[in-house]
Structures are given as C-alpha cells and as structure tokens.
Amino acid sequence: MKKFFKGSYFAIIMAFIYIPIIIMIIFSFNSGGTTFSFLGWDTKWYGEFINNSPFVKSIITSLFVAVISTAVSLVIGTMAAIGLSRTKSVTQKSWFNVANIPLINADVVTAVSLMIIFIVSGMSFGIGTLIMAHISFNVPYVLITVMPRLRKIDKSLLESAQDLGAKPYQVLFKVILPILKPAIITAAAIAFAMSFDDFIISYFTGGSQTNVSTFIYTAKKIKPFIFAFGTILVGAIVLVIIGWNAFAIFKQHKEQNKEAIKSGLYKQKQIHKLNLAIDELVAIIESGQIIRPTKKINLWVKYWFVNLKLKWIASRNFDKKIAKLEWKQSRIKSQINKEKRYYSRRDNTKKQLKKLNAQLARTKTDVKKAAKLTLQIEKLEDKLIFLNEEIEYIENRDELSKQKAKEIQNDIKKLKYNFKKEIKPSKKTISWYNKKIKELEQWKIEVEEGKNHYKLRLVVERLKNVKELNYNQIILLNEKSLHLYNLTHPKKSLTSKLDYQILKTKNENEKQNLIIEKQAQLLKFNNKYFFTIDKKLQDLNFFYRKVEKLKNKLNPPDDREIIHTKGFIVRSWKIIAVSLIGLSAFAGLTVAYIKNNIYDLVIGNWGEYIDPDIITDFEKKYGVKVNYQEYDSNETLYNKLYTFNYDVMVPSDYMVQKLAQENALLKLDYSKLNVKGTIDGKDLNPNKPQEGQEQVELVSGLLETMHSSKAKESEEDSKLYPEQTQSTGTILSYAIPYFWGDLVMVVNPTEANKEFLTSNGVNIDPNTNEIISTTLSWDLLWKAKDANKRLALNSDPKNIFMLAAEKNYQKVNLNKITEVDVAAKDVKNLILANNVSLNGDDLITKVSLGQFDFALMYNGDALYANQVYNHEDDEDDSNDGETKFIYGRPNKKNVTTGYNEGTNIFSDNMVISKKSNHQDLAYLWVNFILENMNLITSYVGIPSPSQSAMDEMLAEDGDFADYPDLYKPKDVYEGLSEEGKQLSFQYQEGIDDYLVDQYNNIVSGKIG
C-alpha cells in the first residue's frame, strides 16, 4: 500500500484536481434539468447560457472590472516595487510587510472595511467602487510577484546604462521593464484571475454591479448552464495555455536556429544526409554495384537479434563502469603511494633539520635571522613528529596484521579439523563449513596483503573482467553485426543477369551482342543515377543558399551601415500590432459593458426566482433595459440597501414590515395595479383595470395571511396617501405577493422511517403520502433526533425558532424575551446533535439525493427535490413506480392550551422603493410579472399568488398535478389561537435581534 501511494502520489493529486472539472464538462451536456443525475447528451444548456441575459451581463462586468483593475494594479504595483527597490533594506522590508497585510487579512474584513470607507466618503456604489476595491487587493499580488524578480537585477547593468548616457526613463523602459517582463506577465495573470473570481469583496462593494461569482453564489439552484459557462472557460484557458506554449516553443526553436547558424550547424543533418546519398550514388556508378537485400529470413532474424542484443548490452553502460573502476584504482594507488612516501619524507625532513640547526649554531649576532630559523626548525620538528607517528602506526599495523593472519589461520585449521570429525554431515552443514572456511581464507588474504593492497587487487581484477566483457560483448557483437549486415545487404552488379549470360554463352556473336546490351543497360542506369544526383545537388545548393541567406540576415556584412536604416514601424510593428489588438478588444469590451449597463429599471430578486426570458420579453415590449440583480437572503438585501437602491425588490413579509417602518418603501397606488381579490369579504382593489388589461385574481388565503402582517405607516405616508385599499396598516399597503408557501416536515419514505412514524401514532395517506394524523407535532423532530435519524433543517433562524415556538406556545412569532429563552433551550437541544445538519440552499441537493430521514423545508423546495429524486426531467414523462416523500404540516392539539400547532406561511413580495426614479415603469413591471405568473411558477416550482396560475398548475395536465397537496400551502386556520393565526413571520424590533443573537450563540457551539 505504501509503495502504491508513493508511486501514485502525483496521479492521485492530479485526479483530485481534474476529476471534478471532467464531471462538470460532462454535466454541461446533460439533457436533464438538474445537476444530480445524467439523463443523456444534449447541447441545449449552451443555448440557455447564451440566452441568459443576467448571467451574460455578469460575465461582461467581471471581464471589464478584471481588465481595468489588472491594468491599473500592474502600473501601481510595478512602480511601487521599483520605488521600494531604491530604498534602504530596512525601509523596504517594512513597507513590503505593510503591503502584504491585505493578503493575510480575511477577505470579509477587507470587504467590510472598504464598504465603510466608501459609505463615509459618500461615494455612490457601482462600477467605480468595485474597480477601486479590486485594485486594492490586486496591487499586493503584483508587488509580491514583481519584487523578487527586481531584486535579481544586477546593479552593474543599471550603472552601465547610465555610464553610456541613458536617461532615467530610458533605463526604466529599455533595461528594467524588459527584465521584469516575465514577472509582469505572471502578475497580470494572477491579478486577472483573482479579480475575475472574487466574490466577497465584490459582494460588499459592487452596488448595482453583479459579477460572475456573485451571480452563481446567489443562484438558488445550480443549473447546467453554469456548467456550460465553466466548460467554455476551461476551454478558453486550455487554448491560451496551448497557444502560449506553442509560441514559447516557436521562439525557442527560432533561438536554437540562430545559435546553429552562428556555430555553422544549421541544417547540417539534412546536408550530411544529402552528401551521403550522393556519395552512395557515385559509388554505385563507379563500381557498377548496388545493394540488393537478401531474401533469406534466417539471416534477417539473426541480424535483428544481434542488433537487439547489442542495444541491450550497450544500455548497461560499460564505459561508465570502467571509468568508475579506474577512478577507484587511481585513488587506492594514491593512498598506497602516500604511505610509501612517508619514509622518504622523514629522511628529507631530518636532513633539512640538521642543516637548519647547523645554520642556527653559526648565527650568533643576527637576532632576526636566528628567530626566523628557530620558527622553521619548530615547524620541521612538528612535521617530523607527525611522520614518525604515521610510520610507527604503519609498522605496528603490519605487525598486528601478521599476528591477525596467524589467528585466522588457526581458526581455519580448527574449522577444517571439526569438519573432518563430522559423522555423515548434512548438506546444510557441509555448505556452512565451506562458506565459513572460504570467508576466513579471504579475510586472511586481506589481512596479509593489507587493506588497500587487497582492495586494489580486487578493483584491478574487476576492471579486467569488465574490459574483457566490454570487448567480448560489445566489440565482438559489433563485428558480428557488421558481418551479418554484409550478408543481409549484399552488393550485386547492376547487370548481374547479363554478366551471367555472357559467361555462360560460348557463341562470340551472341556474346558481343550481350556486351553491347550490357553497356546500354549500364548507360541507362548511369543516366538515371546522374539525374538523381543532379536533383540532390539542387536540394543541397538550396540548403546552402538558405543557410547563407540566414547568415547574412543574422550577421550583415556591413553592420555599421545597416543597423540604423530600419524605420520605426519596421522595428516596432510587433508592439504596435499587439497594442492595437489589445485596445480594440478593450474598446469592444467597454462598448459591451456600457450597452448592458444603460438601464431604465433595477430589479432585486432572489436567485433563480424568474425565467430569464420574462426579462427579455419585458424589455422588448416596453423598449427598456432592465438591470436584474440577485441576492440570497432578506438580510443580504437589507445590507445592500446601504450601498445601492433598487426600483423594485422582492423581500419576504417580515422584511417588508421592517422596510416600511424605516420609510424605505413606496405606498402602493392600487389604481395602477391590475389585481383583484377579497379580504374578509371586501375587495382588495375596487378600481377598474386599466384599458386593455385584465385583472389578476390573487389567492384569497394568501391575502388573509398577508393582511395579518401589520406594517407601521410613517406620518409622511398618512398625509400623502389617502385610504385607497382595504389593507391600510398591513404589508398589502406596500407589497404585492410574488411567491408564497409554507414550511413542511418531509420524511424519506424508507421502511424504518414509516415504522418510526407509526410507532409515534402518525398515519399516512397511501395515495398522496401526506400525513393525515391529527397528532402530528413538530416535537417529532426532537424524537427523530433522539432515535439517531438524519435531520436536515432549513438554517434560517426564524424558521428554526418557529419549531420551538409552535411546540411550546402554538404560534409562529415569539413576542417576549422570556419566550425566546425557553425556545432557545429546545433549539439548542435539537441542533447541537451530530445527526442534525443546518442547510441553506444545499438542503435541496441533500433531500434530492435522499441523504436524509427528516427535513424541514419550504413546500416548493420539497416539491422540486421530490421531482429530482424521481428523475422527472427524463424524456419519459410517466410516473410509474415513482417514490413520493412523506410530508405534513403539524396540527396537533396542545392539551394545556387547547390550541393546535401550525406552520409558517411565508410570502415573498414585490415592493417599490421610495427612492425609485422610475415609479411608473416599476408598476408596469409588477403588472407584467403578475400577467406571466403561470410561466414563472412553472419555471421556479413555487406556489403562485395568482389564482389562475395555481389552477393551471394543479389541473389534470398541469406541471404539479401529481403533487397537489404539497404544491398548495395548507389552510391550517382551524383550531389556532388568535396569536397562532398570524401564520407569517412578523417583524419585531429588538425581539428579532435577540432571537438571531441566541441562534448564532447556539450555532457557534455546533461541531459538524
């Protein structure tokens, strides 16, 4: 296993990186509408991608921002690097560390900091703030990429340029920047990738701008058209890499050709080949013989076998072995000679010492000379001591070796004596004695000869063997191969048949005729070969001329006269061409960005809450441009309002209350809305529809729920707007429903789960799989948790606390701090269990794959997940054998209070901003959406507020006819308390903030 991972480590890493990309590419061709199952091959999602206007706009925005921020960051980062390189090392290091802080800092902190700066500065959030934010985090990447390359520049180059009269700007553009070019290109690639891919900073500072990452992140469901974009992006990156490498290879090949021309090796291979061919043809003409390969298969087999053996033996690299052994031999000889020289060196040292002592004895008056001689004598004495010690060691070693050899000899005699005494020894015993005696004999030889002499003898013997093996195997095989080549490639006369006939013929006249025929045939062959030689000579002359031309081009004969004759365009055409292409591409990108960002109406909506074709149809009908923005939660929408203003938004009911209370919403003029409906038997909109318009009837149950959601009006609204509807003081004063639904309990219909439900007194309708028991309670989730069931819960804080609120107080909304505290204990007990997961939009994926036992989710999401679970996107629309999830809305009666439990009925609503500058167009948008509700609800799969759309979806041939009870929110008013009848979440300032804080404290302690 260890060997497998060691040998396959790189392959495993590559698989880990590239398998997800391959899967994405495959799913981009999925004929199905989901990302969970592959239903066949189709290219429709590429068309969907091209026609998805908001997504294409986000790509254009990402490209535009990435190009500008990269260009500006390169200039700032490169100049900063050059400036820092001129400072002291301490200053340089300090500022470099400061510049690296954004890289270490968390992106979310950087994003919030930038947002606060832009708000304090009073800047309007949009493309300007987005580009500035991207520049701020791109500059450090440029700096850390360019700086190391800058440090490697030899200062002598800069000094040389200055000595030659170059001005500072010339040094910059002609010396520094060309050297930095590879680092600048790398920095540009990194900065572009970081900018194009950024989400968090763009999310907080983008305002009206949505880039690719923001669009994908806020999408409620990941559809295959996003995979199509990813595949195109991967393809573009691959093409860029291939093109870049091809250019690099071409450039390298060009440089190699230049070097070959300089060294005279250019096209020498082809020239040599042509010369060989000409020589062979000339030899054929001169000798009159040609090689005719033999037809004897046995000779060919021998020839191929010998060549194969020769290649295998040559691969063993005898030359390397011989060189290594010769080096060992030389080193051992050097050690032996060094020991021998100790005696001669000792004798020479003694002579020199004697001579210096005599000189010192004669020197009496010259003190300096005496001191110098004394130092020399001391050195020689130290040397003599060293040599005596070495010689003594050698002599002692030799004496010890003799004694050791005698001891080994005695051991050998004992072994031989013991061996003779063995009675009928076994083969194993005989082998052991022989082996032991042989080892001792070799050891004895090594001791007697001396270690170095013994090593030298072994090396010499090994060298001799290798050289013999080299000769015998390589040289002899070469000779054999040459011999077999001559046998397999024998030379025969061009006129061999005629030669044989001439020898055989005795008739002189016939022989003369054959000789004449032979000469004619030879002439014919010669003419043929001369023609071939002439052709090859032409090819040879062509190569010579080409080489000469390139030599002259590379090294002009009169360099001093030609070097400055090229014009500016000839010298700079490459730079001009690249600049023009770059400017043209940027101009096109700018035009595309401006064209897609001149809009008349700004819409803020949840991800995947509209069919993109609806936006296109609205734009065509009214001749306007729509900027369609997406967000993933009410809180995100609320935060974005600090930086940007929408014309129309789609918040949930409680967020409508909050925005209305803050005076951010326009009170609706129902005379401009083509809607009708009843609340408590009264008309919602008594006004007549506009001419040519038909009123859209809203679902009465939904209107009653929305009517229970109070919205505090500002004094300004009370004065400006008279009473126009039957909904004054509710969110209907500000909002028209877009979608609605309720929270349901969903159960995976396994046998174990069915048994669990039955054991808890819960009955199931066998036709619809709906729980029909009147004893269903949210408390079942706590029991499922204790039974170690897998729970997947919607992670919204108010949804989670709703479970405990209904369980304890039979109401959706908690109105007191004490109630929140009681609910928090139950919430903590539920969600901190390891078998309970909190999920955002990935809840749909988890349920679609059946990776759950119990789930808390919106009915529309449950419906979509169940459809995916049954692969209803397949071309076969039959539902035979489909599995329906078990679902239900709790309605258990509490014994203490006497009231039933209920569930949250939510509504996502269209509202118009009070700051909107296009209010009339906003009303047109709201009416257009309501008119096309059947298309929108069919696309999204969430219940529509339009009664006609609901009827169409639930008709016999409707999209959701198989799930009527799950698609339509349940009417659960019966048995509820007055507080419990407020089925939608209410905004309660202070209470809601406290609830969210409690939820965050609980979640922070959750592991897994």
From TrEMBL:
The chain crosses the membrane at residues 7-29, 59-84, 96-119, 125-146, 225-250, 575-594. GO terms for biological process: polyamine transport; transmembrane transport. GO terms for molecular function: polyamine binding. GO terms for cellular component: periplasmic space; plasma membrane. Its main location: membrane. The keyword Transport applies. This is Spermidine/putrescine ABC transporter permease. It comes from Williamsoniiplasma somnilux.
